[in-house]
Fold:
Amino acid sequence: MSPAGRSDGGPIRVLLADDENLIRGALAQMLDLEDDLAVVAEAATGDQAVAAARVHRPDVAVLDLQMPGRDGLEVAELLHRELPGCAVMIVTSHGRPGHLKRALAVGVRGFLPKTTSAHTLASVVRTVHAGGRHVDPELAAEAIAAGDSPLTPREADVLEAASDGAPVESVASRVHLSPGTVRNYLSSAASKLGAANRHEAVATARRMGWI
Structure:
């Protein structure tokens, strides 16, 4: 156990957010075993995480990537704006190259798989609290190998809106475009991703974390 902690001598205050109760509980127990760490709040959804952060003002927020409501990246972006003193970490079982790049773009300082050991998790909490950064080496290598998304932001938005298989007219209504424009965006996205249709394009984009 490390005697680190905050500059004022108190423990590093941690917010945990994960919609899987067993995982969140296990993380809380692991971190509470460290003398210099204290879990001050837990949340099961992105909205709960934001509310808890505003009340407790943690030093470090450990967020699941995929949660009901706001996902971890949306929460991270909001906390980066509202609570710049709170360092944010993402812990996920769905690490994808695009997710990592988006996380770094919104100010996330730590990105780890849920298979991370308790020792490493605690160590990274200390690292990001001290102003450092830690990205899982395997995820970093995958992100570098994958390169950047070939999709434009608008193509990604339209593909995301079409991910549930809705008719083009419904997708057009969601993104406030004409059906013809939506078809053009979907066709362009499929072509760039080497997909035979929009369903394959969605699958590829999701696999890479580009939508």
